[in-house]
């Protein structure tokens, strides 16, 4: 169980922070960049939730919880092969599959696109597009981290599915695509 009774610790005043296993890292380390991008994505989901109701809000609540799981996954590096340790919270393939199922379910009611969608239409959709771009950045940061050290592969898959989910959710929040703002190539030449 998490217990936070002291928020200001002064432990980061020298430009370092602690991971979940106690390891100290510089605040500009790739792992901290990845954790920070995931945290920013979660905050962006909070903005989307201000404009969502019913099942859309319930999905977003699950996504926010998943992103905390992902942050916990990233906050404790994988143990070196052959070493034993206690079980750690890791993002799972089941979470990725749930996202795929939700995308398919939402997409059933939405007509196919004939152009790219511009971010906008409704406030909820615009915030979903913003969250989608932050999810893509988080994915890039986790991929960058994975190039340097071991990362749970499901973490990358989850972020890739999340951006797809947020795109389809934006269309759902735009009255199942009726209020989408479509790109008109060369419209302002």
Number of E-type strands: 4
| Number of H- or I-type helical stretches | 5
Q: What is the element string, with H for helices and E for strands? A: EEHHHEHHE
The CATH topology assignment is: Hypothetical Protein Ta1238, Chain: A
First-residue to last-residue Cα separation: 58 Å
Q: What coarse outline follows from CA principal-axis ratios?
A: elongated
Q: What oligomerization state is this entry in?
A: single chain
CATH architecture descriptor text: Up-down Bundle
Report on the structure:
By secondary structure, the chain is mostly helical. The chain has one domain (26-76, 91-178): Hypothetical Protein Ta1238, Chain: A, CATH 1.20.1200. Helix content is 55%, strand content 5%. The protein has a two-stranded antiparallel sheet with strand order 1-2. The chain starts with 15 loop residues before the first strand and ends in a 7-residue tail after the last strand.
Write the layout of secondary structure elements.
Elements: E1 16-18, E2 24-26, H1 30-49, H2 54-75, H3 93-107, E3 117-118, H4 123-148, H5 153-173, E4 181-182
Quick structural gist:
This protein is mainly alpha-helical and 189 residues long. It has five helices and four strands, in the order ββαααβααβ. The chain has a two-stranded antiparallel ribbon with strand order 1-2. The chain has a two-stranded antiparallel ribbon with strand order 3-4.
Key features of this structure:
mainly alpha; two-stranded antiparallel sheet; single chain; 189 residues; Hypothetical Protein Ta1238, Chain: A; two-stranded antiparallel ribbon
């Amino acid at each position: 169980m998490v217990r936070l009774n002291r928020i200001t610790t002064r432990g980061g005043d020298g430009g370092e922070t602690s991971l979940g296993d106690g390891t100290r890292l510089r605040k500009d380390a790739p792992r901290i960049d990845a954790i920070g991008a995931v945290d920013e994505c979660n905050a962006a989901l909070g903005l989307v939730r201000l404009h969502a109701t019913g099942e859309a809000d319930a999905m977003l609540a699950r996504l926010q919880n998943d992103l905390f799981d992902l942050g916990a996954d990233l906050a404790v590096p994988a143990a070196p092969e052959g070493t034993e340790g206690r079980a750690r919270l890791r993002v799972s393939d089941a979470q990725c599959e749930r996202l795929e199922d939700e995308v398919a379910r939402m997409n059933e009611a939405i007509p196919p696109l004939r152009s790219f969608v511009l971010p906008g239409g409704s406030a909820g959709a615009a915030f979903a597009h913003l969250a989608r771009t932050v999810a893509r950045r988080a994915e890039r940061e986790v991929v960058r981290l994975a190039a340097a050290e071991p990362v749970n592969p499901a973490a990358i898959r989850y972020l890739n599915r999340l951006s797809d989910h947020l795109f389809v959710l934006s269309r759902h929040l735009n009255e199942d695509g009726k209020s989408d703002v479509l790109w008109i190539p060369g419209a302002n030449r």
